[in-house]
Amino acid sequence: MYGKAFAPEYQGALTTLSVNSSLTDVLAVGTEQLRAAEQAGRHGEAARSGLAVAEAHRRLGRIGEADRAWKASYRAARAAGDLAAMAWALWSGGTLARQRGSLALARRLLRLAAELAERGGDILARGYSLAGLAETGRIQGDYEAVGRLHEQLLAEARRRGEARHTVWALEGIAQMHRNTGAYDTAYAMFEEAAGIAARADDRRGRAWALRGLADVVSVRDGDTERALALLSEAEVTCRTMKLSSALAYNHKMRGNVLYRAGRYTEARDLYQQALTEFRAMNEPRGEALARLGLAKSLARLGRDRAETAAELAELAGTLELIGLKHTREMVARAQAEFGLRAQDDSRLQAEVVR
């Protein structure tokens, strides 16, 4: 049995905030509490208020502000000698690093966070940090390496009855099944995640689960209208809670659904919108996915073949440098889709066929 979802990153004076609080509200309250704590010289409270400020900035796509906030939170936690607060700050920094495409830094910060959390006796901080490591590996495409960790974290979250973390783990495992073609398993896990999130009033988790369901419904069933309806439902939550990153990924997925349906002009417009959103928040992985979708849509709409080839080759090289294996393979499949030979370059591997 799962209890109501809560946000463990809202700590200290901010524990009254809901997991569904608008990020602009979180930022306003967190900033107010942070200033009060700093003026009073209460380092521990400054660290915990600063964590909420860092996370609000990150989720709003304000990268520079988020970077300064998590580092300030860590310094305050260190001044207070609070290992758990230090761990949470490093978790925030590692999550931000992954969002920015700095995957090696993300792994380093998240490992340190897990170690400090264990020393500080904070089970949730440890779990979230390990989850961050698992997600970093997953988006790189290292499914074999992180699959067992995802399953371990899911089992731990189920034992604790922690809805939000259970939903996250289910969605991560579901995404790996979807990407390897196990659509029925993926659908069942996304559906379970959506149900748990709904009962626990975790609107953010449900929005991500609906996005996953829409993807499977589109690719497995070819049911474009149902997929679009699921995305529209999720978009309402993204806008209400000011979830900038989730909203951009929602728009990118809407582009995917329309592309699969052969509605290339509409897909092009959605990919362009998502690309603008991802660039505004400096999110390289989302930007790469939107660029890929846009390039494919433009090719279908008659773009010059040489321009498409150059775009895909350049994108492949960028992804190789970032280390996003799965997304790189998606580019190779696009090159195969349009009959374009991958560049004979040491950075670019042999094409991956469907």
Secondary structure layout plus pairing:
Elements: H1 23-40, H2 43-59, H3 63-80, H4 83-99, H5 103-120, H6 123-140, H7 143-160, H8 163-179, H9 183-199, H10 203-221, H11 224-240, H12 244-260, H13 264-280, H14 284-300, H15 305-322, H16 325-337
Helix pairs in contact: 1-2, 2-3, 2-4, 3-4, 4-5, 4-6, 5-6, 6-7, 6-8, 7-8, 8-9, 8-10, 9-10, 10-11, 10-12, 11-12, 12-13, 12-14, 13-14, 14-15, 14-16, 15-16
Task: Explain how this protein is built.
It comes from Streptomyces plumbiresistens. This is Tetratricopeptide repeat protein. Pfam families: TPR_12. The chain is an all-alpha fold. The radius of gyration is 20 Å and the shape is globular. It has 16 helices and no strands. Among the domains are: 8-119, Alpha Horseshoe (Serine Threonine Protein Phosphatase 5, Tetratricopeptide repeat), CATH 1.25.40.10; 243-354, Serine Threonine Protein Phosphatase 5, Tetratricopeptide repeat (Alpha Horseshoe). The chain has helices at residues 23-40, 43-59, 63-80, 83-99, 103-120, 123-140, 143-160, 163-179, 183-199, 203-221, 224-240, 244-260, 264-280, 284-300, 305-322, 325-337. 78% of the residues lie in helices and 0% in strands. Mean pLDDT is 92; it is low at 343-354.
| Helical amount | over 70%
Q: Give the termini distance in whole angstroms.
A: 41 Å
Helix/strand structural class: mainly alpha
Based on CA atoms alone, the radius of gyration comes out at 20 Å
Q: What's the CATH first level of the domain at 8-119?
A: Mainly Alpha
Q: Biggest β-sheet: count, sense, barrel?
A: none
In the CATH hierarchy, the architecture of the domain at 8-119 is Alpha Horseshoe
Low-confidence stretches: 343-354
Discrete helix count: 16
Beta-strand content: under 5%
CATH H-level homologous superfamily name of the domain at 8-119: Tetratricopeptide repeat domain
CATH topology of the domain at 8-119: Serine Threonine Protein Phosphatase 5, Tetratricopeptide repeat
The sequence of SSEs as H and E is HHHHHHHHHHHHHHHH
Average of pLDDT: 92
User: What is the molecular shape?
Assistant: globular
- Record field, number of beta strands: 0
Protein name: Tetratricopeptide repeat protein
